């Protein structure tokens, strides 16, 4: 028996303000492409079951484009006559009862089974049971639903537990409304053939549990996620459990460093042969205060003009008598610059540079902010 497990597809996510030829945000299109790749692999693998462990959409009220895309893909999946079990994640669960859960739109598909109403749902077939625990806003209610799940185990069949939550402290994402599975209920995992998790965006086994896995997301929702590998899990249930990671192709993130002690030579030495259509993380190191005034972010981005996007970050030179970035978190960046100029400059030069810095921060920095 083979099961495709994928999760956290976040359809409708957009970022970076880059528009493609079809007038769609390019990052939004990347997420659609990632989902389509999984569907294409499902068609080739022909598994016995397909499961998705939450955050199908990025928002509880997705755009028309995201909904239309999902319906088109679900129609393809439904035509394969493979049971597809889907649970809601925190991004697909309304925080009030005034909103209708978006996953209701899939209820009329013959081969698609959805669980979204913050309660345990048992989806049972001839030889396997799927125990669905979607995202829970209420921890007290969640405990009672976990107990129902435990009671629903069928010893004569394979049992698959599906959840969208954090299991173990290592997998906390610090998101608003995050559901954390209670540690004292982890013993239930031993009675399951496989525990399929969503929420954490990296593929991997959870702690000591040999049968508990996050499939990971199919794309990155943050540039802080440096993983250049995304995909899904292929589960084989025979006499023993086998988990295989299947990679899909996503847009690479490449990291570059420019040493500002000799900025021209450092830029000249960069290997930019493979940056076309990538996302580039560019760190300016050994910056002095005076240099940072003169170095414009748009000029640095021009060096990486073949990339889809270049994200420029600055790292200031420190010494024993100079504050580090951590020391100055309570100061604004503008105050930090002015403080250092005051130390390094003569009084008449300081007055001129202070005005220059204030002008720059009032116009330039607001327009060309690299804040994520």
Secondary structure blueprint with pairings:
Layout: E1 2-6, H1 26-45, E2 49-52, H2 64-79, E3 84-87, E4 112-115, E5 121-124, E6 128-133, H3 139-151, E7 158-164, E8 194-198, E9 204-205, E10 212-214, E11 230-237, E12 241-248, E13 253-259, H4 263-268, E14 279-287, H5 289-294, H6 297-303, E15 309-316, H7 333-344, H8 347-367
Parallel strand pairs: 1-2, 2-3, 3-4, 6-7, 7-8, 8-10, 13-14, 14-15
Antiparallel strand pairs: 1-11, 5-6, 9-10, 11-12
In short:
This protein is of the alpha/beta class and 372 residues long. It has 8 helices and 15 strands.
Task: Please characterize this protein's 3D structure.
With 372 residues, this protein is an alpha/beta fold. The chain is 27% helix and 23% strand. It has eight helices and 15 strands. The strands form three sheets. It has a six-stranded mixed beta sheet with strand order 4-3-2-1-11-12. It has a six-stranded mixed beta sheet with strand order 5-6-7-8-10-9, with helices on one face. α1 runs parallel beside α2 (64-79) and α7 packs antiparallel against α8. The radius of gyration is 25 Å and the shape is elongated.
């Amino acid at each position: 028996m083979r099961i495709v497990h994928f999760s956290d597809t976040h359809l409708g996510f957009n970022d970076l303000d880059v528009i493609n030829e079809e007038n769609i945000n390019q990052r939004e299109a990347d997420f659609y492409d990632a989902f389509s790749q999984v569907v294409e692999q499902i068609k080739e693998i022909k598994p016995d079951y397909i499961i998705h462990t939450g955050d199908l959409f990025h928002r509880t009220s997705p755009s028309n484009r995201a909904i239309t895309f999902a319906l088109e893909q679900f129609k393809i999946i439904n035509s394969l006559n493979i049971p597809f079990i889907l649970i809601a994640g925190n991004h697909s669960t309304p925080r009030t009862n005034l909103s209708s859960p978006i996953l209701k739109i899939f209820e009329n598909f013959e081969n698609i089974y959805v669980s979204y109403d913050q309660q345990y749902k048992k989806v049972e077939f001839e030889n396997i049971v799927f125990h669905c625990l979607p995202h829970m806003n209420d921890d007290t209610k969640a405990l009672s639903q976990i107990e129902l799940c435990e009671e629903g185990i069928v010893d004569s069949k394979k049992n698959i537990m599906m959840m969208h939550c954090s299991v173990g402290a290592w997998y906390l994402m610090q998101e608003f409304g995050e559901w954390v599975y209670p540690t004292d209920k982890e013993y239930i995992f031993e009675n399951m053939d496989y525990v399929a998790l969503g929420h954490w965006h990296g593929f991997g086994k959870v702690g000591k549990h040999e049968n508990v896995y996050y499939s990971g997301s199919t794309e990155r929702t943050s540039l802080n996620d440096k993983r250049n590998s995304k995909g899904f899990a292929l589960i084989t249930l025979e006499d023993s459990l086998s988990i295989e990671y299947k990679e899909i192709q996503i847009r690479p993130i490449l990291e570059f460093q420019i040493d500002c002690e000799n900025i021209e030579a450092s830029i000249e030495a960069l290997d930019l042969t493979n940056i076309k259509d990538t996302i580039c993380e560019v760190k300016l190191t050994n910056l002095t205060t005076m240099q940072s005034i003169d170095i414009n972010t748009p000029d640095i981005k021009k060096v990486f003009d073949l990339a889809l996007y270049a994200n420029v970050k600055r790292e200031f030179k420190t010494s024993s008598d100079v504050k580090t970035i951590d020391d100055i978190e309570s100061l604004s960046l503008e105050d930090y610059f002015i403080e250092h100029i005051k130390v390094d400059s003569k009084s008449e030069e300081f007055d001129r540079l202070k005005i220059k810095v204030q002008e720059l921060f009032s116009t330039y920095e607001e327009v060309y902010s690299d804040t994520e």
